[in-house]
Amino acid sequence: RRMINASAFSQYKILCVGHACIDMINMCASYPEEDSKVGNSTKINRCLDQHWQRGGNASNSCTVLGLLGAKPTFFGTIADSHEKRFLLEDFAKFDVNTDYAVIHEGCDSPASCIILSAATGSRTIVHSNKNLPELSVEDFNKIDLSAFQWVHFEVPCDMSMGRRWSKCKQQ
């Protein structure tokens, strides 16, 4: 592995390809038992903290790269829903370029409900993506990849984006 000097890191233009969503974080004293009510009618195991944040692997990678001084660009799909403003403003806080984000009208924003246990440090993630499509070959064809020194992929388990990438390179 080659280590990158932090000051030199700022010259790298990095494209992060993948996912952005809304993470709804719920910190509980301990993991709730199945079929229990957390914090509704009793203070037992009431949620200690709850907040929204931007999530998704490629989205999170952009944040870390921005904090390290790189020039990250997010390339993924975003729903033209009420969460879009939150996502784009949060990217901007970390100097993440979103010029290549593909906005889809009539879609819902993907969301993850995350339950964190303060007692064990474990987490459980329940993710939902109702109808936001993945990037297409046509989306890739609109980008000049030579403008980037590094392209970072976060691919779905079925490797569909990897197959799309192979097709893009062949065209």
UniProtKB/TrEMBL annotation:
InterPro entries from the UniProt entry: Ketohexokinase-related, PfkB_dom, Ribokinase-like
BP terms from Gene Ontology: phosphate-containing compound metabolic process
Sequence ranges assigned to domain Carbohydrate kinase PfkB in this UniProt record: 13-160
A Pfam family that the UniProt record links to this protein: PfkB
Protein name in UniProt: Carbohydrate kinase PfkB domain-containing protein
Origin species: Cherax quadricarinatus (Australian red claw crayfish)
